[in-house]
Amino acid sequence: GGEVENSQTTRNIVLVPVATIGCGKTTVAVALTKLFGWGHVQNDNIIGRRNRPQMFAQAVYSALGTSLVVIADRNNHQKRERKQLIADVLNIVPEVKFVALQYVHDRGNYDNIRKATRERVLSRGDNHQTIQAGSKSQEEIIGIMEGFLSRFEPVDDSGSPDDMFETIIDIDATASSRDNLETVITRLHSEYPKLFKEMPSADDLDNAIEAALNDYKPDLKHD
Ligand code: IDP
Predict the structure, then answer these.
(1) Is residue 104 lining ligand 1, measured as CB closer than 6 Å?
(2) 180 Cα nearest atom in ligand 1
(3) Given a cut of 80, is residue 86 above it in pLDDT?
(4) Of 9, 31, 75, 194, whose CB neighbour count within 10 A is largest?
């Protein structure tokens, strides 16, 4: 949609992180829920083994019933996952707008991304929704992380499915979650001003990230 349409948007927005393990997407998602009361769907909200991708999309749809904005918190690092999520949500509710939160993965920057994400996950990995660090060796964890890195497909809005994103917000995977939270909020505010009543202060952002880092108790699904 165009500018006028966007400036009137107040609901039915799905934020779709595009990331690998340890980028900080859950931390930013939790901070956003603390600041704005938005919905947050994680894979570990999904019970059972069958049809998990469809159930994830269903949970996103359900959360839209009570929240203006819902964060679809999984890696969505391949086009196949993004296509499934977008198609399944649109199938239930056609008027949703999708916004990518892309943790940029330029191949030339992989060593810096490895350094940042490993440091975060290996120091606090017991609490990770995808990796239970305590029960795995460092090598196994690094192996799982490398799998996500090698499969990562950048958002490419010149074709399907990424041309379905109305807005693409690029995020620095090596930056702090505090800075990335600000990047996301600033850009959302410029695209969808009606989403916000009062903008949070710098202190509010600090506090939301600190609380997100402290609260952190997800669980251990592998998808
Ligand atoms: P992910 O959802 O992208 O895999 P998170 O689970 O949010 O990433 O973060 C991975 C780990 O790094 C968590 O233990 C989290 O508490 C920690 N973390 C996230 N952001 C920061 C940061 O800015 N500084 C230090 N640690 C962070």
Answers:
(1) no
(2) 23
(3) yes
(4) 31
